[in-house]
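Below sits the subject:
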Amino acid sequence: MTTLAANKLRDYQLGDNEEYPVIADDTIFQGAAVGENGSGYSRPLVAGDPFQGFAIAEANNAGGAAGAISVNVRKRGNIALPISGLAVTSNDRPVVYASDDDTFTLTATSNSPIGRVSRWVSTGVAIVEFDAAMAREIAERVAGDV
């Protein structure tokens, strides 16, 4: 092996952000929870989808073919979210689930895990520590795949 003898320009990626192709004929709005549809395309999250993160900006693919545009998502971080069923006693870091791109709950059923309560803010509102990789692991554990 040869060690570097000069500076080398590297193609760094954004780290906590990622870019995914969007399904045909749909719009993912800024701030939406984003899910993967099982065919490799992103969409506004539907209960049961693997969670990919939150849309950083609108991705409007209305009238476009699948993959014609991409959505930029934040895969990991902290976010303030309204959560149904949340009370001050939720400070024990329960898992937070999404049933669609803007509905969050502590109820698992067929919903998609997205992260954990980091801090209770007020009745029905918490700071959620979200992580797409962690959410996938939780979903696999719940499904018995791990």
User: Anything to note?
Assistant: The longest strand covers residues 112-122. The two ends are 38 Å apart (CA to CA). The chain is about 10% helix and 40% strand. The helical segments are 132-143.
